[in-house]
Design goal:
single chain; 152 residues; mainly alpha; Arc Repressor Mutant, subunit A; three-stranded antiparallel sheet; 8% strand; globular
């Protein structure tokens, strides 16, 4: 196969096109989401921790790291920052001193109650290029794609 034919084959490969389009769409969406969160006084990681605790209740630091894909060192740094701002607090586990929970404080809840509705509205704007049926189809297809070839 010549170099020219190999290039044409790559250009016609729907798997490669899908990966490129997904990457560009993800980057575009996340830039807009991150900009919105910054305008609300938080960074993306801080917001992710706050949002998790606000909607799902107290979690261990380890579970927070796993859910938002942070290393233990990074989660400690983020929790320290949010704790210093009095948005969250650490709760030691009475049964296992190695385990620490984090919970949102009243101040943190007030902040989330203030900023989350506007953030949600911004997400609606960002995703308004699709109607509800298309959004559900995209969710289903991306979920299928994300679980199709997982190593067991």
């Amino acid at each position: 196969m010549t170099k020219s034919n190999a290039l044409k084959e790559k250009q016609n490969n729907s798997s490669l096109k899908l990966l490129v389009v997904l990457s560009k769409a993800y980057r575009s969406l996340m830039e807009q989401v991150e900009d919105d969160i910054h305008q609300r006084g938080l960074n993306l990681t801080d917001f992710a921790v706050m949002e998790l605790l606000y909607h799902k209740g107290p979690h261990t630091l380890k579970a927070i790291g796993e859910k938002i894909l942070l290393t233990s060192g990074s989660i400690t740094y983020v929790v320290n920052k949010l704790e210093n701002r009095r948005y969250i607090l650490r709760i030691p586990n009475e049964n296992d001193r190695r385990v620490t929970f984090a919970a949102i404080t009243e101040k943190g809840e007030r902040l989330m109650e203030e900023i989350f509705p506007g953030h949600w509205a911004r997400i609606e704007e960002i995703t308004s290029g699709l109607d509800e049926t298309e959004k559900q189809l995209a969710i289903d297809l991306l979920r299928k794609l994300g679980t199709a070839n997982k190593v067991k």
